[in-house]
What does this fold into?
Amino acid sequence: MSDVAPIRREVVVELAPDEAFALFTGRIGDWWPVGELSVFGAGATVAFAAGELVETFEGRTSVWGRVIEWDPGARVSFTWHPGRDPERASRVDVSFLARQPGHTLVVLEHRGWEAFDDPAAARDEYDRGWPRVLGLYRDAAGQTADADAYTWVALVHRPGPEAPGHGPLFADPRFAEHTRFLERMRQEGYLVAAGPLPDEPETGMTILRLPGEGRLAEATRLATEEDRSVKGGFFNVSVRPWRVMMSRPL
It folds into this structure.
């Protein structure tokens, strides 16, 4: 099994979960970028049919994957091998979670990188492709990229009670736990920026952007419970909501 971490990407759409599921599955051919991401290229169609995800072009077909789980309004999972041997398939899981009325948080996870000759390179390629795909899916749902559709937070980290009394914090082995937390936030698509504050020694700031409104409690849980450097007292963290007035798509 590969030790390359799964890709996790999220997007909020202005649809109820059953509608969001239907758009992702029943209408995938309406929004999938076949001109860029397909086997046959422009002019092809793609659809879920008979338990498979299939691309069709001028009488030819290419099976992209086999459906593993089909729970309308909640979850769809399928193997993933476009243009590849089905015996060397990775896996994609898509969950549909109700948020505020009329909104759904769609979470896509792609795992199983051991199916590829170069797992890390494959992950990097898909890490660029899935945001493009989910952006088109969101657009098809009638949602524009808007800062108001996200929860933005600033995490301010300062030395905690267990921090060393001398020497730079980054030289302490426990700093690696904080680095692992930041890498996980990057992999999940939450991390916007992170780094030290030059005018305040041993203090740093991290900006996170979580899909969906009203997720401050979730951001706080991530910052205080998932970052072992904070949980162990190496860092103290202050979780502050951040209002974005201007931004560009990430």
Q: What stands out?
A: The domain at 147-241 is CATH 3.30.70.1060 (Alpha-Beta Plaits). The longest helix spans residues 119-140.
